[in-house]
Design goal:
Layout (H helix, E strand, L loop, with lengths): L1 H6 L3 H7 L2 E8 L7 E2 L5 H10 E16 L2 E14 L5 E14 L2 E10 L7 H9 L9
Parallel strand pairs: 1-6
Antiparallel strand pairs: 1-2, 3-4, 4-5, 5-6
């Protein structure tokens, strides 16, 4: 799977396994403004390879939806990985992937991931929605 390669820091294998559409959007687990396909330059991909290191990944399929030209996958990704220089630890993410078929095959058009696998309280969700941070570090 493409994200297993990414968790190892192998962006070449990732790129060989998944084709991003030109209108690709990513809503990362760190929040903020969604990124878009043209931003994924070779330099950015190389930086991603340094950001994720030495990881393993298991995927839990929650649901799959499909039509002749579109597939939506709802997953839980269970990774154990070094992220951004932090020691290896569990990173469990709820993930939605949207693939669209075009004349060249299947392309990833959208990925949304969040770290809310364990759930949060109403108060915590309200704080997040208002942009209130409980820690001094942030992403």
């Amino acid at each position: 799977m493409s994200n297993a390669a990414l968790m190892r820091g192998d962006t070449d294998a990732y790129a060989a396994l998944v084709a991003l559409s030109s209108d690709f959007t990513l809503m990362s687990p760190f929040g903020g403004v969604p990124s878009r396909g043209p931003e994924y330059t070779p330099e950015r991909m190389a930086a991603m390879g340094r950001f994720f290191r030495n990881g393993t990944l298991q995927v839990e399929m929650v649901e799959a939806y499909g039509s002749p030209d579109m597939v939506v996958l709802a997953l839980v990704e269970h990774a154990h990985v070094e992220v951004g220089g932090l020691k290896a630890q569990d990173w469990n993410l709820r993930v939605t992937l949207v693939y669209r078929r075009d004349e060249n095959g299947w392309r990833l058009v959208h990925r949304h991931a969040d770290p809310l696998v364990e759930g949060v309280s109403l108060r915590q969700a309200a704080d997040l929605a208002r942009g209130v941070r409980q820690d001094a570090e942030g992403p």
